[in-house]
Amino acid sequence: MQGRAFFDEDHLALLEGIEKFAEGVLAPRAAEIDETEVFPKELMQQIADIGLFGMKIPEEYGGLGLDTRSYALALEAVNRKNSAAGIIVSQANSLSTQAVVKFGTPEQKEAWLPGVADGSRVIAFGLTEPGAGSDNASMKAKAEKVDGGYIINAQKTFITAAPMADNCLLFAKTAPELGAKGISCFMIDMDMKGVSTGKPEKKMGCRGIPVSDLICEDVFVPEDRLIGEENKGFTAAMKTLSIARIGAAASALGIAQSAMDEAVKYTRERVQFGKPLYKHQGLSFMMADMEAKLRACRLLVYQAAYKADMGEEVNMDASVAKYLTTETACEIADKALQLHGGYGYVQEYPIERIYRDARFHRLGEGTSQIQQLIIGRELFK
Ligand SMILES: Cc1cc2nc3c(=O)[nH]c(=O)nc-3n(C[C@H](O)[C@H](O)[C@H](O)COP(=O)(O)OP(=O)(O)OC[C@H]3O[C@@H](n4cnc5c(N)ncnc54)[C@H](O)[C@@H]3O)c2cc1C
Fold first, then answer.
1. What gap in Å lies between CA 277 and CA 225, rounded to an integer?
2. Which of 6, 134, 235, 240 has the highest count of CB atoms within 10 angstroms of its CB?
3. Exposed, middle or buried by CB within 10 Å (0-12, 13-18, 19+), for 303?
4. What CA–CA distance (Å, rounded) separates 299 from 302?
5. How is the chain split into domains, by residue range?
6. Is-contact 182 174, C-beta < 8 A?
7. What are the residues facing 151 on neighbouring strands?
8. So what CATH class is 4-117?
């Protein structure tokens, strides 16, 4: 195994179990989910039953309380076989729960975490707005303090799983005059009066997990829905993002590996000019290049996860891993498609879907340019 030194026997045993599940249960459903854009309920339950939704949720709240290396290995294995499943697994473990794990009260943890771990609750993450994407701090969402709680008005956009969610972790300004320092974080219920979702977007890839607008019109949210301290929501979001970035990098790694798997398989089978494609040196060199880059990225992802587990600051490592792995995954998927010739451009072979799925990770959890911005900032800190 590449990067073996980063892992112990427990990690390897976990990986073996997840790889078996991914191959036997997730892989056969990947094309169907992409085609129908529906994530089957029973598959959600199977994912919950083996504990994948609760990997980063503490054991006392129904999760497995695993470390970041386990999480990275699991996301790599899941995404290698089914990237829609990868999206929902990563969301459950990072964006939708980590602010509650880190900043929630025991009552809040008890209220929301066990349901995510057992698959009965989906929590969305509402940060982006139509006019505030990379520049989250310029958000317009407002939460005005009233007796016993807050009144929230917000329009959030591109919210993963909003149409199927029970709750949303929503960010809104409680002190607009303070900019990024005036943002708070709330847990809203999707059935609260005044909460609605828009039409699911028609997406290029990672289909099956709907993405839509989320609108709050004069929504009353009781005080006990505030996560962490008032005006500290942006800090909370940023703290959960570095784990999410390692997750996004691990997801892209799995997708890149699946593109590589397809390239190897196809070039063995396809014969042109009297020999299999891989025996044409120009193509084997192209594949050597793909494999070399994939392996370099894998070590970056494992190292970032290892450092996070050692309690080290991982801002730089997480952004480097996310930036290079997501960019490389697209390059590898593009070359793998090229190796399929015209067959790569039609839906007969999985590479067409893999190519589309790979593209998302350069945008979510901070675009590539935002990762460059963070890396540059860290470099001159
Ligand atoms: C499928 C999908 C699912 C998503 N899920 C969620 C979710 O669950 N929750 C959520 O809150 N958000 C979600 N998002 C939103 C996502 O995080 C944003 O799309 C992303 O942060 C970029 O914001 P934007 O689309 O407004 O682009 P913009 O911020 O407008 O950026 C446009 C371009 O400019 C670049 N750019 C912007 N600022 C700079 C700068 N300072 N320097 C250099 N380049 C810059 C960007 O990299 C990009 O290339 C999702 C998006 C997609 C597509």
1. 59
2. 240
3. middle
4. 5
5. 4-117, 123-230, 235-379
6. yes
7. 144, 220
8. mainly alpha
pLDDT of 242 > 90? The answer is no
Encoded tokens for 158: 């591109």
pLDDT of residue 81: 98
Q: Which residues contact 9 (CB under 8 A, 6 or more apart)?
A: none
pLDDT at 241 over 90: no
Ligand 1 binding pocket includes 158 (Cβ within 6 Å): yes
Model confidence pLDDT, tens digit, residues 163-217: 999 999 999 999 999 999 999 999 999 999 999 999 999 999 999 999 999 999 9
CA-nearest residue, atom 42 of ligand 1: 369
Nearest to 35 by CA among 259, 271, 350: 350
Which element (helix H / strand E) includes 142?
strand 142-146
pLDDT of residue 238: 81
| Ligand 1 atom 26, closest CA | 133
Helix, strand, coil abundance in the chain, percent, nearest 5: 60, 15, 25
Q: What is the pLDDT of residue 233?
A: 87
> Does ligand 1 come within 6 angstroms of the Cβ of 170?
no
Q: Residues near 48 by Cβ (< 8 Å), separated by ≥ 6?
A: 54, 117, 118, 119, 120
What is the C-alpha separation between 62 and 34, in angstroms, rounded? Answer: 30
What atom of ligand 1 comes closest to residue 126's alpha carbon? Answer: 11
- Is the pTM here over 0.85, yes or no? yes
Measured in angstroms, how far is the CA atom of residue 185 from the centroid of ligand 1? Answer: 19
Give the type of residue at 191. Answer: D
**98, two tokens:** 């980590």
365 flagged as catalytic? yes
* CATH architecture, domain 235-379: Up-down Bundle (1.20)
The CATH code that applies to domain 123-230 is 2.40.110.10
What is the token pair recorded at 78?
A: 């899941």
What pLDDT was estimated at residue 235?
A: 84
Q: What is the pLDDT of residues 46-59, one digit of tens each?
A: 999 999 999 999 99
> Half-sphere exposure (CA, 13 Å, Cβ side) for 196?
5
Equal fold, 4-117 vs 123-230: no
- Residue 41 corresponds to which tokens in the numbers above? 């309920």
Q: Which residues have a Cβ under 8 Å from the Cβ of 230 and sit 6 or more positions away?
A: 174, 184
